[in-house]
């Protein structure tokens, strides 16, 4: 049986990380939130699911009720430490089944860089995940450079995950008198909006010259690249009109420094596009568990894909082992 490593899988700490006020990101737990909460917090249940559906390893992160989102920066720092300590304990119990991505207090970029360093060097985690646009600020702003510098120094990737877009953005772009507010929210969030915001995050980072400053930095983008691979040629054309131009073509930075994952979007057209634009060395497998539970599809979709066996092995585990330094 082929080894399967999925890299956008989630957890929550069973007890609240702190008593602070969270900037609620999204209620993505569907119609049975208690069952999803159990799968987020109970690692034995995760193992049972993995065993049942042929998943060798999950790379776990906190992308929902995360201490990154705490209003108070000091509480965010404490909450991230507590959450990362909890995750490291679970990984150490089953190091052949779980790896972990740290959550960072990005409200204080210097503290976030320090927490990343601690999480890798002391806790043995494999990178970090940043969800959304922190406090309304895109990550290309100069104050966030210490986080990227530390990630390059440690040789670990940062996973840029979507987050809850602002109410003003939802109201302007996705609310309409022609359909229900509920439908507008679905389009503005998981259906389209937060993917566009996350893709914009990546475009801004490349345009800022981030990869000229840190050429060995690697970022990960879910949902087949949050629409950016669809526009690489157009981005090359129009960014190339600007003087002074970027040192290289936009697509060169993207293909060299960015990895894309499936995030449970097991669809042939998107996989074909990602492989065509990125090549087989920069595509990773992911389910987005437990918010999505694709079950047999996790292994079967890849196994039945119309791609060669070498590419299947790269996507299913080899690329992830290399990128996340998995033993």
TrEMBL record:
EC number annotated for this UniProt entry: 4.1.1.45
Source species, domain of life: Bacteria
Keyword terms: Lyase
Domain Amidohydrolase-related: 42-326
Annotated Pfam families: Amidohydro_2
Molecular function terms from GO: aminocarboxymuconate-semialdehyde decarboxylase activity
SUPFAM superfamilies: Metallo-dependent hydrolases
Class in the EC hierarchy, top level: lyase
Entry-linked InterPro entries: ACMSD (IPR032465), Amidohydro-rel (IPR006680), Metal_Hydrolase (IPR032466)
Designated name of the protein: 2-amino-3-carboxymuconate-6-semialdehyde decarboxylase
């Amino acid at each position: 049986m082929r080894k399967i490593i999925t890299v956008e899988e989630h957890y929550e700490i069973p007890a609240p990380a702190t008593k602070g006020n969270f900037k609620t990101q999204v209620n993505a737990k569907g119609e049975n939130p208690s069952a999803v909460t159990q799968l987020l917090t109970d690692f034995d249940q995760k193992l049972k699911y993995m065993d049942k559906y042929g998943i060798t390893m999950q790379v776990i992160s906190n992308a929902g009720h995360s201490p990154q989102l705490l209003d108070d920066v000091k509480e965010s720092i404490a909450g991230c430490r507590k959450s990362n300590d909890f995750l490291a304990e679970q990984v150490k119990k089953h190091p052949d089944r779980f790896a972990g991505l740290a959550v960072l207090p990005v409200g204080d970029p210097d503290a976030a860089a320090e927490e990343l360093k601690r999480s890798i060097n002391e806790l043995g985690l494999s990178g970090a995940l940043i969800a959304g646009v922190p406090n309304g600020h895109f990550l290309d702003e100069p104050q966030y450079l210490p986080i990227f510098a530390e990630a390059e120094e440690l040789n670990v990737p940062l996973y840029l995950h979507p987050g809850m877009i602002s109410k003003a953005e939802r109201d302007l772009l996705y609310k309409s008198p022609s359909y229900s507010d509920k439908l507008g929210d679905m389009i503005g969030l998981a259906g389209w909006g937060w993917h566009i915001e996350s893709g914009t995050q990546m475009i801004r980072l490349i345009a800022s010259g981030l990869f000229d400053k840190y050429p060995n930095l690697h970022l990960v983008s879910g949902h087949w690249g949050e629409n950016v691979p669809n526009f690489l040629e157009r981005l090359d054309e129009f960014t190339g009109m600007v003087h002074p131009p970027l040192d290289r073509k936009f697509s060169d930075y993207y293909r060299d420094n960015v990895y894309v994952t499936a995030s449970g979007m097991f669809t042939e057209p998107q996989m074909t596009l990602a492989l065509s634009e990125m090549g087989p060395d920069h595509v990773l497998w992911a389910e987005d568990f437990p918010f999505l539970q694709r079950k047999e599809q996790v292994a079967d979709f890849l196994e039945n894909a119309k791609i060669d066996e070498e590419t299947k092995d790269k996507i299913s585990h080899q690329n992830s082992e290399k990128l996340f330094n998995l033993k």
